[in-house]
Structure formats: C-alpha cells, structure tokens
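Write out the 3D structure for:
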Amino acid sequence: MSDHLEQETLDQLKAWWMRWGKLCILGMTVALLLLTGWNSWSYWQRKQTTQAEKLYEQFQQLADWPAQSGRKIDQAQVLRIVQDMESKFGRTPYAQMTALAAAKVFYQLADTAQTKAQLQWTTQHAIDAEYRQLASLRLASVLFDEKAYDAALKLLAKKPSEAFRALYADRRGDILAAQNKLDEARQSYRKALQAFSPGDPLLRMTKFKLDALGG
C-alpha cells in the first residue's frame, strides 16, 4: 500500500513538472536576471556618486583656494571640471551643486555667457526641484540685468514652491516695473508681500518698491 502511494505521488509530481516545470525555470531565471541587474545598477550608481564626489571636491578646491591665497581662479580648469561633471555624472546630486556654484564663480569673473549656461543647465537637468527653481530665479536676474525682460518673465512663469513664491513674485515685480507695466508690477509686489514671512529682511525692500510705485 505504501509503495502504491509513493508511486502515485511520484506520478503526480512528474505530471506537475511536465506541465509547470519550464514555467518555474523561466520564472527563476527572470528573477535571477532582475536581481543581478539591480545589483549591477546599484553598484554603478554608487560608483558614479563616489567619482562625482571626488570631482566636486576638486572643483571646491579650485574655486576656493585662489580667493584664499589672493591668486586668480583658473577659469579654463573650472570649465573643464564642470563639463566633466555634467557629461559624466549629470544624474548625481553633485552635478547640480557644481553647476550652481560654477555659475556664481563665472558671474564673479564677469563671464556672462558661462554664467547663463550653467544656470540654464541647472534649470533643465537638476534632479531636485529646489535647485531648478533657484537657478531659474538667478537666471531671470541675469536676464533682467541684460534687459531681456520677456525671457526673464518666461522663466518665472511656472508656479514655484512655497519657499520661492515670494522671491519669484518680487522679481516679477521688478521686471514688470522696468517694462513700465506698473499695475501688474504692483500686483506682483503685493503677492510677494503676502508670501514673505513677517520677519523676512526682504519684506521691507519689497514694501519700499511698492510704495515707490504708488502702491
């Protein structure tokens, strides 16, 4: 009886394997490939981040050291590092940090073209929304200085997060006032005043600008 039950169980297992065996092997193979792919991707991402961190440290040393020593910044070398960072490690946090900091360096060096290029790159490729919004605000300020008012307003057209709402509205007010669109400028300054926190030091300046327009 026992032998009969064992044989019956074996026959059932064989039948089950004949029906589902290939599917099980396929499932295990796919799972193994997914696990291998995930591990490979994780390793590649960690390697990218580590290399980007080292390159960012080089950038910081290059950008900070001349100011501390009284020597001039090597502008060409700064640009090479920035380009390497953006082309090789553009999807790491260090790329957005480098681009935004490089824009400040180039601005101090009176290189407007590279200032705008780095800010533009950040608005398009930064992985964090805060960096994209800050870069848009700074780029709009550069365009404002160049009297490229429409281009500046276009950058500020998107609704920002709460942290940038007051600054965006204030800068729009400046641009609109420069275009002599005074009613729109007043409206924008009022929005800025509503968005600023009571203790913000910029609130008084915005209030002054609104008063100057007869707000």
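The two ends are 101 Å apart (CA to CA).
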